[in-house]
């Protein structure tokens, strides 16, 4: 009782944190409440913070992370010193230090839930677009992968390359075009309209690579932060992914869908190539697991320039495999599952672009088969289950993806019979 009276403010602080978290946990099952909170509170705050942080060229998120690390270290040192000086009251002093740390940690957790966590429980892209997921078969996987390969071959020479044939577009050029990348997607889906800000280049990009991350959207600053140490050929599609998060879309699958959609409809050859390369990598991973011979045939048909980009990308991410990457992936997997994403980190997926057609077709779904944006036989992952379902497509088609396990991967418009189809695959980690 004496301890409670002495640390009354800390206990009130702790109680307030617990009440906020309890309110969030209770409200998240009510979609209309989450929609209202996101529309009236969290989205305006994130936009305001993003506008404020856009005034500086560096990543405010990284500055806050460094300050947080310094403060945590200082608090630990101060707490240890205080416990040592307390002598006969060391147990009580240690308890108060732990209580203070718990209050601060829970406050950050509660703020994150209220500012960004709500987005996992609001209307999704699927809800707002009318696109629905359906089960698909293996038969179309080869065709879609081949189509991606063909488009890569057509666009490979449209981007600058170095003497070794590798993708050689400057970061300045990539980031300069980022604010217009969603113009095509916004025409298809007007609710995606957003005043994009230029993403921030991360100073600690190498550390992000070691943790196996290509990008981070940070709700407390409204910034999209990009790992610029990663292979440049996939930086444009990573930027498009993070800009989807800026629009309040939490689902990683949906953000990856939008990344490919935005990249391939942007009108920029650089972004189009990056989006198609991302699609090919994941489809290739899936196809290799299901039919190695078909995968090999398609890969052999790729021009040397594309294969050079793929080889460099594989080699880069292979150099970071280890305990640090595994630990970070497990940590983020836990976070995603805490927000109701049952598949955790496996929920990362994307949809490839598909040509227009006037005949019924099938599309393919593939489970994640590699770490990072990796491709080919070196990839490893879970087994794949395939189911076949025909989809009517009398007219226009466009690819799409959605949340949930890989067995529900193909999308179509619910308002019109069978207009939209696509494919779900797993991708590397990006927040």
* Poorly predicted tracts of residues: 349-431
Count the strands?
7
Widest beta sheet: strand line-up: 2-4-3
Please report the distance between the alpha carbons of the first and last residues.
44 Å
Spatial extent as radius of gyration: 23 Å
Give the count of helical stretches.
16
Domain count: the total is: 2
The helix fraction, in percent, is: 40-55%
Biggest β-sheet, characterized?
3 strands, mixed
- Summing up helix and strand content along with how strands pair, one would put the structural category as mainly alpha
Shape label: elongated
> What value does the average pLDDT take?
78
Percent range for β-strand residues: 5-15%
Q: Strand-and-helix sequence, N→C? A: HHHHHHEHHHEHEEHHHHHHEEE
Molecular structure report:
- By secondary structure, this protein is mainly alpha-helical.
- The protein folds into two domains: 2-120, no CATH class; 125-426, no CATH class.
- The chain contains 16 helices and seven strands.
- It has helices at 2-6, 8-27, 31-53, 60-86, 90-115, 125-129, 139-155, 171-176, 183-188, 205-210, 235-246, 252-264, 269-290, 292-301, 304-318, 323-338, and strands at residues 131-134, 200-201, 215-218, 223-226, 349-350, 410-413, 425-426.
- The chain is elongated.
- The model is unreliable at 349-431 (pLDDT under 50).
């Amino acid at each position: 009782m004496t301890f409670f009276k002495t640390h009354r403010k800390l206990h009130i602080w702790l109680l307030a944190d617990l009440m906020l978290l309890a309110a969030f946990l209770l409200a998240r099952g009510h979609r209309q409440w989450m929609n209202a909170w996101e529309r009236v509170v969290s989205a305006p705050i994130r936009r305001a913070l993003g506008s404020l942080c856009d005034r500086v060229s560096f990543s405010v998120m990284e500055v806050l992370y460094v300050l947080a690390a310094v403060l945590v270290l200082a608090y630990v040192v101060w707490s240890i010193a205080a416990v040592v000086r307390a002598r006969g009251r060391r147990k009580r002093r240690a308890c108060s230090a732990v209580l203070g740390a718990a209050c601060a940690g829970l406050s950050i957790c509660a703020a994150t839930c209220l500012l960004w966590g709500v987005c996992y429980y609001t209307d999704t892209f699927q809800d707002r677009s009318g696109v629905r997921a359906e089960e698909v078969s293996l038969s179309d996987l080869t065709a879609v992968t081949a189509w991606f390969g063909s488009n890569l071959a057509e666009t490979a020479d449209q981007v600058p390359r170095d003497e070794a044939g590798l993708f050689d577009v400057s970061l300045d050029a990539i980031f300069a075009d980022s604010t217009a990348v969603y113009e095509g997607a916004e025409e298809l889906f007007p609710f995606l309209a957003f005043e994009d800000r230029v993403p921030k280049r991360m100073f600690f990009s190498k550390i992000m690579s070691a943790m196996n991350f290509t990008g981070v959207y940070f709700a407390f600053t409204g910034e999209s932060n990009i790992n610029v140490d990663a292979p440049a050929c996939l930086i444009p599609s990573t930027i498009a992914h993070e800009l989807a998060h800026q629009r309040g879309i939490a689902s990683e699958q949906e953000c990856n869908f939008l990344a490919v959609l935005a990249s391939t409809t942007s009108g920029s050859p650089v972004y189009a190539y990056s989006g198609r390369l991302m699609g090919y990598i994941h489809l290739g991973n899936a196809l290799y697991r299901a039919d190695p011979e078909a995968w090999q045939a398609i890969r052999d048909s790729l021009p040397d320039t594309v294969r050079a980009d793929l080889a460099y990308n594989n080699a880069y991410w292979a150099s970071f495999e280890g305990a640090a990457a595994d630990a970070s992936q497990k940590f983020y997997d836990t976070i995603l599952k805490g927000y109701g994403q049952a598949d955790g980190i496996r929920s990362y997926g994307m949809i490839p672009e598909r040509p227009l057609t006037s005949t019924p077709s099938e599309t393919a779904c593939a489970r994640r088969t590699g770490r990072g944006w990796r491709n080919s036989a070196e990839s490893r992952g879970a087994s794949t289950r395939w189911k076949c379902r025909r989809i009517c497509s009398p007219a226009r088609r466009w690819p799409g993806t959605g949340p949930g396990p890989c067995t529900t991967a193909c999308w179509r418009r619910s308002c019109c019979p069978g207009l939209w189809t696509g494919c779900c695959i797993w991708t590397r980690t990006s927040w």
